[in-house]
Amino acid sequence: MQEPGKATVIIGTQFGDEGKGKIVDCISDKFEYVCRAQGGSNAGHTVVVDGQKFAFHLLPSCILRSNAKAVIGNGVVIHLPSLLNEILHVESQNILNVRSRLFISERAHIVFDFHQLVDKISDSSKGKDSIGTTGKGIGPTYSSKILRTGLRMSDLISDFNSFSLRARCMFSQYQKQYCELNHDIDMELEKMEKLRELFKPMVVDTMVLVNHALEQKRAVLVEGANAHL
Q1: Would you tell me how many other CB atoms lie within 10 Å of the CB of residue 168?
Q2: Whether 153 contacts 198, CB under 8 Å
Q3: Domain 109-199: which topology?
Q4: How far apart are CA 48 and CA 201, in angstroms?
Q5: Catalytic-labelled residue, pool 20, 69, 136, 145
Q6: Whether 145 is catalytic
Q7: Per-residue pLDDT reduced to its tens digit, 59-83
Q8: From first to last of its 229 residues, what are the pLDDT tens digits of the chain?
Q9: DSSP string, the chain
Q10: How many other C-beta atoms can be found within 10 angstroms of the C-beta atom of residue 199?
Q11: Residues sharing a CB contact under 8 Å with residue 175, sequence separation 6 or more, in sequence order
Q12: Which InterPro entries match (predicted)?
């Protein structure tokens, strides 16, 4: 399963819910790095350790293992308040060094609260053609990424004035599309500024990190979200 200098990748080849998370949890103790490749907080899996239940949506489940390094890659879209809640829950169960073992890609895009509102408004407007979205803002965030209007972790930790201006511009564009969109963008940006300081030490170039690990013959596991079909 492990070959020095090469990553092991777990992917789903059907329609999802194939048990990828369970497989990752079962074998992650054999790897030093476990990486989330894509997706967001709309999916996840539950791990039970010593009777304690952990529900993971953004954090790689390897974070429960004290010697493992968890990587959130550039293909993941991150709702920072949700990620913080997961971190706090894990820390409350006396899991050590969570923040120093978590590495977040500087290229990962950010899910804003207004992305989640747009997700719900857009889906509900389709009536009987609604796809039943989770309302986590994943689709709108990936749309922002493709349109190059989205904001990345690197934007958040650099010039916050520029970050705020671009966030307001993105929100304004959504307001023009969805007249019923009602949201306090000032409050969200205040929250983002606080989260900025908390997450800044965890943000790195994960491509360099993982490639260096592979060059050093470290054991790397990549956890794919969603499924092929």
Answers
A1: 13
A2: no
A3: Adenylosuccinate Synthetase, subunit A; domain 2 (1.10.300)
A4: 29
A5: 145
A6: yes
A7: 988 888 888 899 999 999 999 999 9
A8: 667 788 988 887 776 666 677 777 778 888 999 999 888 887 777 777 777 778 888 998 888 888 889 999 999 999 999 999 999 999 998 888 999 999 999 999 999 999 999 999 988 777 766 667 778 999 999 999 999 999 999 999 999 999 999 999 999 999 999 999 999 999 999 999 999 999 999 999 999 999 999 999 999 999 876 655 5
A9: --BTTB-EEE--SSSS-SSHHHHHHHHGGG-SEEEEEEE-TT--EEEEETTEEEEESSS-GGGGSTT-EEEEEEEEEE-HHHHHHHHHHHHHTT-TTTGGGEEEETTPEEPPHHHHHHHHHHHHTTGGG-----SSSHHHHHHHHHHT---BHHHHHS-HHHHHHHHHHHHHHHHHH-TT----HHHHHHHHHHHHHHHGGGEE-HHHHHHHHHHTT--EEEE--S---
A10: 21
A11: 181
A12: Adenylosuccin_syn_GTP-bd, Adenylosuccin_syn_Lys_AS, Adenylosuccinate_synth_dom1, Adenylosuccinate_synth_dom2, Adenylosuccinate_synthetase, P-loop_NTPase
Fill in the amino acid letter for 224.
G
Asked whether 133 and 119 are in contact (CB, 8 A), the reply is: yes
Q: Which amino acid is located at 45 in the chain?
A: H
> What's the gap between Cα 5 and its chain centre?
26
Q: What gap in Å lies between CA 189 and CA 83, rounded to an integer?
A: 17
